[in-house]
Write a structure and sequence with these properties.
By secondary structure, this protein is α/β, with parallel strands linked by helices. It is built from 17 helices and 22 strands.
């Protein structure tokens, strides 16, 4: 079968930037994306927002429309609503498309799976009415839907951004419950002088906090002991702040305390991963150009380590330049010259990223469950107590615990519970996460039916692909 020069999985900031760079240099490119239009999570519906005035979401969001427009102009094969479930080390990609199974081949792969929100396994986190701040943004960006009178709890830039966006739209917010530990401010203080070199980013965050404070919405700081109220659905949030217990009534509770790379695609390919102690998560091990441990596979954007939308754009371009070099479409001196600006910009962003990572480092009490009855694996309904029993019966690593309890075997394939299980085992074994490890994942990366597998179609690359 004729192969594409490069197949990109994901059309967020990194995937779009990479596709533009590759296509402009004459590479034959295929882009596979789950969404119906490019943009990823950060630029979701930026080009066709359902809101009367999308500018209320901020310039960072509306600027995405320019990137989407450029992406849609370049000569590539863009396959939307493509759900990739197998990536082979032979360049073969299998994906679902409107109930059919489709296949394409490529010489080089660029994976841009993006990030997912870190689960917050507090009591009641699985009740109906409890969602993530990212879910609030999806509803707002995709369908202009909001939840009036919601409680927002957690910490980090995304939480503050969605609260500010709600307020700009005139949507009432019951309270913002900030869980940033007080000691984090002291720990992050030594990193502030270098972070101030990126003054526009710092000012953007401070402006969000000032906007929320000026709105009159109750803000509780240093919150601990969070618990969602309600038996059959969310009825509010209980927490401690300033040594006092508070109950805030609400039908909807949005939780957020950071994001982490979406690992399932890179784990299923058995790429080398490393533990990021600053961001408290696993991430694929890559070089400055996104090159992974497998020669023809690169990873860019937040899927390779959390760097934000601007950083993802740069990382996508760098990965594309390196792929062009590997395809003999760009000489070494051209690669060095073209890569220099983005490499320098990413290096300049690094101190600010380090400051943010330390300031909003989640506490173990929110990252790992403490109540024995708290669900850890939502798919298989395994509680903390059940996992502890499995550990005491001899399951000392994530895969052994999965075999004994089925934790991680459900439809999400460990996306929600993977980091929680690794963290719990690290605590119970009193050993670092690097020693504990992570789930061993395999294809298919989603549930499939035999009927879908029987409808098989191959997608040939255009004949002008590089020989």
């Amino acid at each position: 079968m004729q192969a594409f020069d490069c197949a990109i999985i994901g059309a967020g900031p990194a995937g779009m930037s990479a596709a533009i760079t590759l296509a402009k240099s004459g590479a034959c490119v295929a882009v596979l994306d789950q969404a119906s239009r490019a943009g990823g999570q950060i630029y979701r519906a930026s080009a066709d927002s359902p809101l009367p005035d999308a500018h209320v979401l901020g310039a960072d969001y509306t600027d995405g429309a320019t990137l989407i427009a450029e992406f849609e102009r370049v000569d590539i094969t863009h396959i939307t609503q493509a759900d990739v479930w197998h990536i082979g080390d032979d360049g073969r990609i299998l994906f679902s498309h409107f109930g059919d199974t489709r296949e394409l081949h490529c010489r080089e792969m660029l994976l841009c799976p993006g990030a997912m929100e870190r689960p917050m396994p507090i009591p009641g986190w699985t009740l109906p009415g409890v969602m993530t701040a990212g879910a609030a943004q999806v509803m707002l960006k995709s369908d202009a839907m909001v939840a009036k009178g919601a409680v927002f709890a957690g910490s980090g830039p995304l939480l503050y951004l969605i609260v500010a966006q709600y307020l700009r739209l005139g949507v009432p917010v019951a309270a913002m419950v900030d869980t940033t530990p007080r000691q984090n401010y002291l720990a992050a203080a030594p990193l502030l002088p270098r972070a101030m070199r990126n003054l526009p980013m710092l000012k953007k965050g401070l402006d969000l906090l000032r906007e929320i404070r000026a709105s009159g919405v109750p803000v509780y700081r240093g919150a601990t002991d969070l618990q969602v109220l309600g038996d059959t659905r969310a009825q509010g949030l209980r927490f401690t702040s300033a040594s006092r217990s508070h109950d805030i009534a609400a039908d909807t509770v949005f939780l957020h305390h950071g994001v982490q790379p979406n690992l399932n695609m890179t784990r299923a390919m058995d790429l080398t991963h490393r533990w990021n102690a600053d961001q408290l998560c696993w991430q694929v091990d890559t070089d400055a150009f996104g090159q992974s441990s497998v020669p023809h596979v690169a990873v860019a954007g937040d899927g390779a380590g959390i760097i934000g939308a601007d950083g993802a754009r740069m990382a996508g371009r760098l990965a594309a330049l390196n792929i062009l070099h590997r395809l003999d479409l760009l000489p070494q001196e051209g690669l060095d010259r073209a890569a220099a600006p983005d490499l320098a910009a990413l290096a300049a962003m690094s101190p600010f990223r380090a400051f943010i990572d330390r300031l909003y480092r989640p506490s173990d009490a929110l990252r790992l469950p403490r109540d024995p009855d708290t669900l850890v694996c939502r798919c298989e309904e395994q509680t903390l107590a059940q996992l502890r029993t499995g550990f005491e019966q001899g399951a000392r690593d994530p895969n052994a615990l999965k075999m004994l309890t089925r934790c991680g075997m459900g439809p999400c394939q460990g996306r929600q519970c993977g980091h929680i299980v690794a963290g719990l085992l690290s605590d119970w074994r009193n050993e670092p996460p690097e020693t504990v490890g992570y789930y061993r994942l395999r294809s298919p990366q989603r549930l499939l039916t035999l009927d879908e597998l029987s409808r098989f179609h191959a997608i040939p690359a255009p004949t002008e692909a590089t020989e």
